[in-house]
């Protein structure tokens, strides 16, 4: 199946990265955006800095200030049908996507270079509102290998394997508002009591 992230020969641009278009329709998109905006979103905190994007997580909360994973509030009911679709797209059991992160990027907000925390496993993201470009880079002895992929409105992506663990990703500041919902599984051993 050809996806946004495949080349002419249907090879993923980066192994482990796949995407699909129109995972929700326009009406569902408008409803999800209203639901996200109705949640108490707060500026992303990182080691004392406040980011421009606003976020809220459910299921598990990774505290970037303290560097710890903590159990959070359960996923709200309105997110469950979207999680079901995300899990089906990524061929995962829906219960394995234990964390949900809501983000709103107001104009001028983006997300800097990072790899998602190792306590998480699969990352499945849904893009709402303005289209963005996700940039990818991987360090090589002689510099960075770079590529990018469009995050179309109402599309979904899945990061696992190489793209998830070997590459960093970022989104440049945008002029228009974008919302995303990302679902994550936990990595094996992320929770000390072994559950
Ligand atoms: O907004 C997105 O789709 C990506 C967010 C992201 O990279 C993250 O939360 O780690
Ligand atoms: Fe990320």
Description:
Helix content is 15%, strand content 43%. With 195 residues, the chain is mainly beta. The chain has a single domain, classed as Jelly Rolls, CATH 2.60.120. The strands form 3 sheets. It has a 7-stranded antiparallel β-sheet. Strands 7-12-9-10 form a 4-stranded antiparallel β-sheet. Strand 9 and strand 10 (143-151) form a beta hairpin. The chain is globular. The N and C termini lie far apart (35 Å). The model has no long low-confidence stretch (mean pLDDT 90). The structure holds 2-oxoglutaric acid and fe (ii) ion.
Question: Topology of this protein?
Answer:
Elements: E1 17-20, H1 26-38, E2 42-46, E3 49-58, E4 60-63, E5 68-71, H2 80-90, E6 99-105, E7 111-114, E8 120-129, E9 132-140, E10 143-151, E11 156-159, H3 161-165, E12 168-171, E13 178-186
Antiparallel strand pairs: 1-11, 2-3, 3-6, 4-5, 6-13, 7-12, 8-11, 8-13, 9-10, 9-12
The structure holds 2-oxoglutaric acid and fe (ii) ion (FE2).
GO molecular function, one term: dioxygenase activity
InterPro entries: AlkB-like, AlkB-like_sf, ALKBH4, Oxoglu/Fe-dep_dioxygenase_dom
Organism: Sphingomonas floccifaciens
């Amino acid at each position: 199946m050809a996806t946004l992230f495949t080349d002419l020969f249907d090879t993923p641009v980066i192994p482990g990265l796949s995407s699909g278009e129109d995972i929700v329709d326009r009406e569902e998109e408008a409803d999800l955006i209203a639901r996200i905006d109705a949640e108490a979103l707060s500026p992303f905190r990182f080691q004392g800095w406040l980011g421009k994007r606003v976020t809220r997580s459910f299921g598990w909360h990774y505290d970037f200030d303290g560097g710890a994973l903590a159990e959070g509030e359960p996923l709200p009911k309105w997110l469950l049908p979207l999680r079901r679709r995300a899990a089906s797209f990524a061929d995962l059991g829906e219960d394995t996507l234990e964390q949900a992160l809501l983000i709103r990027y107001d104009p001028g907000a983006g997300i800097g270079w990072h790899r998602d925390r190792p306590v998480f496993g699969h990352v499945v993201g849904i893009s709402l509102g303005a289209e963005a470009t996700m940039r990818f880079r991987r360090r090589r002895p002689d510099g960075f290998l770079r590529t990018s992929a469009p995050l179309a409105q109402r599309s979904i992506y899945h990061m696992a394997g190489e793209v998830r663990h070997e590459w960093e990703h970022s989104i440049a500041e945008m002029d228009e508002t974008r919302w995303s919902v990302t679902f994550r599984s936990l990595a094996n051993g992320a929770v000390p009591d072994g559950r």
